[in-house]
Design brief:
alpha+beta; four-stranded mixed β-sheet; three-stranded mixed β-sheet; about 20% helix; elongated; binds zinc ion
């Protein structure tokens, strides 16, 4: 967990407020619009991931524990009544930025998946009859205390009646090898957070079962500037309070280029402008959302003695007192 605090330049155990603040700062610093370098592409992913994990929105990836044990790969998926079971699906989370959702994109998703071992064809090694149970899979013991015969599963073969004569070295008798594969996932504009896409019969191979599916769950990351509500986008635009008093023609950044509009004299704080169809377009239903721009006064943290003087004079004038 500490690793994620470090990515955001924080001490372990920092508060949610501190995490949010650090993320906002770094997300702006490494945002591809502001920083087109290759380093920024990697950094922004790291920063977003650390934020999501520390805020509890996403689980930290768990390190895969390699299975070196000598186990029976058929245990879980033994053929029951002639039906082949399907392996459990592989669940993958696809992180998308609001820009990805706005523009649509193709994402290369790289993942690890189990594939049937080519050396042993998924068997796990060569097999022989279990000598402990003579292939029956159970033991028959006299239990004198209870005065009866007790049948119990053979521990040596786990009830299978067979044991490995020689383990497959390629897959350590797992029957499968873990390998890296990738898929180009087409992201249509307007795709929704938490929606799922299925990639049928491309998931894990499990000995004795049909190949599983892959489920991709869309995770739209928080954005330092925009928030997404359905297809509508929201952003705050900081404007000098003087411009709000006197009015001004301004230009605002949107995901679709800059847009001009007029601040009328006497504009109040939190006045919201609606820019029609400047939100996200959903390609599947052919509908576009709007962009809501909230005007927020920009208050300088430091001012010069001259500015102080001007404002002091203004403070005592009728309309400002
Ligand atoms: Zn093998
Ligand atoms: Zn046995």
């Amino acid at each position: 967990m500490n690793k994620y605090y470090e990515i955001l330049g924080l001490k372990p155990g920092a508060s949610e407020e501190e995490i949010k603040k650090a993320w906002k700062k770094m997300a702006l610093q490494w945002h591809p619009d502001r920083n087109p370098s290759e380093e920024a592409k990697v950094k922004i992913q790291e920063v977003n991931e650390a934020y999501e994990i520390l805020m509890g929105k996403k689980q930290a990836p768990r390190e895969e524990i390699p299975n070196h044990g000598f186990r029976n790969p058929f245990d879980q998926f033994r053929n029951r009544g002639g039906f082949r079971m399907k392996a459990r699906p592989l669940n993958l989370v696809v992180d998308l930025t609001i820009e990805d959702v706005f523009n649509g994109t193709t994402k290369k998703i790289i993942y690890n998946v189990n594939r049937t071992c080519g050396t042993c064809n998924g068997v796990g090694g060569t097999k022989k009859v279990c000598t402990v149970c003579s292939g029956r899979g159970f033991k028959n013991e006299n239990n004198f205390a209870m005065g009866m015969n007790v049948f119990s599963m053979c521990n040596s073969c786990g009830g299978a009646g067979q044991i490995f004569a020689e383990a497959c070295k390629t897959c350590s008798s797992n029957g499968v090898v873990n390998q890296t594969e990738s898929v180009d996932l087409k992201i249509t504009r307007g795709i929704t957070h938490a929606s799922k896409m299925v990639y049928t019969n491309s998931g894990n191979d499990v000995p004795g079962a049909n190949r599983g599916d892959i489920f991709f769950t869309i995770n739209v990351l928080e954005h330092p500037i925009y928030t997404l509500e359905g297809l509508n986008l929201h952003k705050d635009e900081e404007i000098s309070f003087i411009d709000m008093v006197l009015g001004k023609n301004i230009e605002v950044d949107t995901l679709d280029g800059r847009v001009k509009f007029t601040i009328q004299p006497g504009c109040e704080a939190n006045t919201t402008f609606r820019l029609t169809k400047k939100g996200v377009t959903d390609d599947e239903i052919g509908v576009s959302g709007d962009l809501y721009v909230k005007i927020v006064p920009k208050i300088p943290k430091e001012i010069t003695p001259e500015e102080t003087q001007i404002l002091e004079n203004l403070r005592s004038s009728t309309n400002f007192s």
